[in-house]
Every structure is written in C-alpha cells, then in structure tokens.
Amino acid sequence: MEVAFSEMRNELQSQDALWRKIQLECQQLHAELLKIREYRDMQETQIKHQLSHAQLTEQLENRTAELLLLAQSEEHQREELKKIRNHVYQEEQSHRSEQERMKTEISDLTEELHQKEITIATIMEKAGLLERQLKMELELKDKLLAKQQLLDFQYKVIKSENTHLKEML
C-alpha cells in the first residue's frame, strides 16, 4: 500500500513538474512575442528616420511580410499552447479521477481494517473467557483429584485397619 502511495506521489510530482514546465514555456513564448513586437516597433521607427519614402515603402512591405510570417508563427504557437493546455487539462482530470479512486480505496481499506480490529477484539475477548473457563475447570479438576487422592488414602487406611482387625480376630 505504501508502494502505491509512493508511486502516486511520484506521478503527482511528475505531473506537477510537467505543468510548471508548460507554464514556463508559455511565459517564455509570451516574452518572445513582446520582444518581437518591440523589435518591430523599433525597426519601424529606425526605418522612418533613415530611409526615403520609396525605400520606406519597400521596407514596410518587407516588414509586413515578416510580420505576417510572425503572425502565422504566433498563431501556430497559440495552437501548440492550446494543445498543451488541453493535454494538461486531461492529465489533471485523470489525476483527479485517480485521486478519487485512491480515496475510495483508502476508505474501503480503512473500513476493512476497522472490521478486522473489531473481529480481533471479539476473538481476544472470547479467548479471555475461554482461558478463565479453562482455569476454573483446571482448579475444579485439581480439587477433585486432591479429594480423590484423599479418598484413596482413606480407603487404604481403612483397608489396612480392616486387614489388621481381621488378623486380630
């Protein structure tokens, strides 16, 4: 039973570590997205100052294409994040159902243990009664044996007296 608890504890710790890793990755993705946006904004500001209108237009078109690619990449990352969240949710649900199953099992085992304790207490009580009865019977038999030995002794004495009296007659 302790092994099952240990295995469950290890599994819970593993799932917790996975969840923390996923949260960290989400934070990192968010930070990267912010950096990309800042970089884009900085690039746009620099381009406006350095290039002429024609070059600016060309650069903007290139940047727009890059931004579209980044937006697609961001969408892909969001989908991945959604998949990860769904997986984590399923793992949490599985974990909860496993916890409920274990709680039920522990409750059943506790009840079974309680019943066994009651049975042991009943057996111990009966054993105590039987022991007292045996002691009483042994005492009674000892008394009867002592009485019989006394009667045997008295019989032998009387027999010996009878024999002695017969000889005298």
UniProtKB/TrEMBL annotation:
Q: Which UniProt keywords apply?
A: Coiled coil, Cytoplasm
Question: Is this entry keyworded Coiled coil?
Answer: yes
Please state where this protein is localized. Cytoplasm
What's one GO BP annotation on this UniProt entry? centriole replication
Statement: the UniProt record of this protein carries the keyword Cell membrane: no
Q: Which parts form a coiled-coil structure per UniProt?
A: 92-126
Tell me a GO cellular component.
cytoplasm
Taking the first listed entry, what is the main subcellular location of this protein, grouped into a coarse class? cytoplasm
Q: Which domain of life is it from?
A: Eukaryota
* PANTHER family linked to this entry: DEUTEROSOME ASSEMBLY PROTEIN 1, SARCOMA ANTIGEN NY-SAR-24/CYTOSKELETAL PROTEIN SOJO
Identify this protein by name.
DEUP1 protein
Native source organism of the sequence: Pampusana beccarii (Western bronze ground-dove)
